[in-house]
Design brief:
By secondary structure, the chain is an alpha/beta fold. It contains eleven helices and eleven strands. Helix 9 (about 210-220) links the parallel strand 8 and strand 9 (about 225-230). Helix 2 (about 30-35) crosses helix 3.
Length: about 300
Amino acid sequence: MTDIVLLDGGMGQELIHRSNQPPSPLWSAKVLMDEPEIVTAVHRDYIDAGAKVLTLNTYSATPERLERDASADLFEPLQAKAITVAQAAIAERDADAAITIAGCLPPLFGSYHPENAPAFDICLDTYRRVVAQQAGAVDLFLCETMSSIKEVKAAVQAAVESGKPVWCGMSVMDEDGTRLRSGEALDKAALAAKQAGAAAVLINCSWPEAVTQAMPVLAQTGLPFGGFANGFTRIDALGIGGTVDVLETRNDLGPDQYADHVFDWISAGATIVGGCCEVGPAHIEKLAQRLKQAGHKLTGGL
């Protein structure tokens, strides 16, 4: 059977569920600052669940978000802390564990609002800053929730310059998995990612049904492809600078139900799968079990 790269699941929502603090516009970065032990625990739980790739908890630690919601001076310390926490979680479980660490290149101002992304050159400069902080400690770069072709091109170019493999995750409309949140065609975005040097293309932080719809489009690139979906009912209520408590969780995406969707992606040729917001360790554990039962070998993709 096929080798499958098994990513971890969502980090930000899992941290909020475990933290005693109220949701903050800083989201996962707030917990990383104040309760790093929770971040370590979530990483450990994903390793125990069977994930072979851990993504750094830096999604909301971009210079733009920190300047808006806290202080830009936190950028380098939080990037360094996220690396230390991920490395510690791996060491606590098995110093020689075959776990891949993925750097994180997220939307710069917040999820789902590509209209707020700055000009291409500004995006590129900022992504280069993030890459510079992470490159020495990661095995690959994961661009996440890219919602416009501009973001795709800037993030992938900056990451490729590091010499590390780059996987590009794009977020599509929940009701139309063939279009980015910007309305741009997914086939054009996937081609842009490939031309910029991406080694794999993914769909993330979208309904699993939309991910299924997107799989044939990604297959056309000839690159390895896959997805990691979210478990939100809708994302419309989340504005820039808002808090995620305005979003509701679907009640029809338990671990087995989520795994059913993932197997649809694999049937379409996907080889890189995992989870995003509201897809937690229990989902990844069930998915790992079912993948092994089906005869797949789980890998870290390198």
